[in-house]
Design goal:
The chain has a four-stranded antiparallel beta sheet. The protein has a single domain, classed as Beta-lactamase Inhibitory Protein, Chain:B, domain 1, CATH 3.30.1450.10. The longest helix is centred in the N-terminal third of the chain and has 19 residues. By secondary structure, it is an alpha+beta fold.
Length: about 140
């Protein structure tokens, strides 16, 4: 292999590594921008439906009482895992992340603040695949 091709190969590998390593950083920046926008737009008394319609499904939901719920939107995912922060593009089970927590009482927003949570492991099998009667594929099970 000539020097010219070797240099070109090294440059291509370095460029791919640089581009790939930035994915997590871009996701982190996007998460911070989103939670800053959420924080700036919130108004006490907004319904959970209004917040969900405007900002989508939170990363975590937690019932804290019969009529109380905390919704958590990730603002800085994977804060205790440098590799995940650089290469991974979303919150990862077992990693500590910074969140914007929204507290709802009786379906109405009452407060919000910054918090740190550890992402729980996903529940369920994820998906399953098998062969059904007559050689057909069985349906996927989602969680």
């Amino acid at each position: 292999m000539s020097v010219k091709y070797r240099v070109a190969a090294i440059i291509m590998v370095a460029a791919a590594a640089t581009i790939g390593s930035g994915c997590g950083l871009f996701y982190d920046a996007g998460s911070r921008i989103k939670t800053d926008r959420i924080r700036d737009s919130l108004k006490p008394g907004e319904t959970a439906l209004q917040v969900h319609h405007q900002w989508g499904e939170p990363d975590l939901r937690k019932d804290i009482g019969p009529n109380e719920e905390i919704w958590s939107y990730a603002s800085s995912p994977n804060t205790n895992d440098l590799t995940a922060k650089l290469f991974y593009t979303s919150t990862k089970p077992g990693d500590e992340s910074k969140f914007l927590d929204l507290k709802f009482v009786n379906g109405a927003l009452v407060s919000w603040n910054d918090a740190v949570h550890t992402m729980p492991a996903k529940q369920g099998a994820g998906f399953s695949y098998g062969l059904g009667p007559g050689g057909t594929a069985s349906p996927l099970i989602k969680y």
